[in-house]
Amino acid sequence: MIAAAPVDPRAGAAAGAPRGASAGSPRVLLAVVAGGMLGTSLRLALDTALPNAPTGLAASTLLVNVVGSLSLGVVAGALPARAPRWLRAGLTAGLLGSFTTFSALAVSVVLLADAGLALPAAASLALNLALGLGAAAGGILLGRAFAAPRPEAPDEPGSSSDAARALPEAEA
Q1: In a 10 Å sphere around its CB, with 0-12 CB exposed, 13-18 middle and 19+ buried, how is residue 5 labelled?
Q2: Are residues 88 and 7 in contact, defined by beta-carbon separation less than 8 angstroms?
Q3: Which amino acids are annotated as binding site, given as ranges?
Q4: pLDDT, tens digit, for every residue of 72-101?
Q5: Is 28 exposed, middle or buried (0-12, 13-18, 19+ CB in 10 A)?
Q6: Can you say how many angstroms the Cα of residue 63 is from the centroid of all Cα atoms in its chain?
Q7: Where do the segments described as Disordered lie (predicted)?
């Protein structure tokens, strides 16, 4: 089970937060709008490249929801709570929020069910849910792995850092 990352209650618009850190600040709004424009454009490109058949699996919807869930998980796992609010909002609500879509999934499932295709409708819903949750969990683990401090490798004997450490001793 993936435990939630601790959240710094002082992050954001709390007392003592830096100016411009509130959710409604111009910097945050601009980041969300810019991210939203990019995410929507990416979504449109995928929908154009991989159009959905009206009575089949909405492949582009499944793809954006799984890729978006993985990406959001990576961002959530890697981006520390102390990262600027505008950056978190621009990447999450803006870019990835506009890229992924629940409404398109809901409409495709209803259209499939309405056409008498209950099994494909249920399969589409199950695939989006299972793969999306799995991708989000995997993304969080990946993000945490990327953000984890790396242990320093021990120096090789005779390396330049060994020589630099030995230099002051030789001068003494």
Answers
A1: middle
A2: no
A3: 97, 100
A4: 999 999 998 789 999 999 999 999 999 998
A5: buried
A6: 14
A7: 1-23, 150-172
Alpha-carbon span 39 to 45, nearest angstrom: 10
Are 98 and 42 in contact by the 8 Å Cβ rule? The answer is no
Please compute the mean of the pLDDT values over residues 123-147 and round it to a whole number.
95
Comparing C-alpha atoms, which of 93, 91, 108 is closest to residue 143?
Answer: 91
pLDDT of residue 9: 41
Q: Give the count of alpha carbons within 13 A of 4, CB side only.
A: 4
The model's pLDDT over 54-76, given as tens digits with 9 standing for 90+, comes to 777 889 999 999 999 999 999 99
Rounded distance between C-alpha atoms, residue 104 and residue 145, angstroms: 32
Please state, in angstroms and rounded to a whole number, the distance separating the CA atoms of residues 143 and 146: 5
Cα separation, 93 vs 154, in Å, equals 42
CB-based burial, 92-112: b 16+ in 10 Å, e otherwise: bbbbbbbbbbeebbeebbeeb
pTM comes to 0.73
Residues of the binding site for Na(+): 97, 100
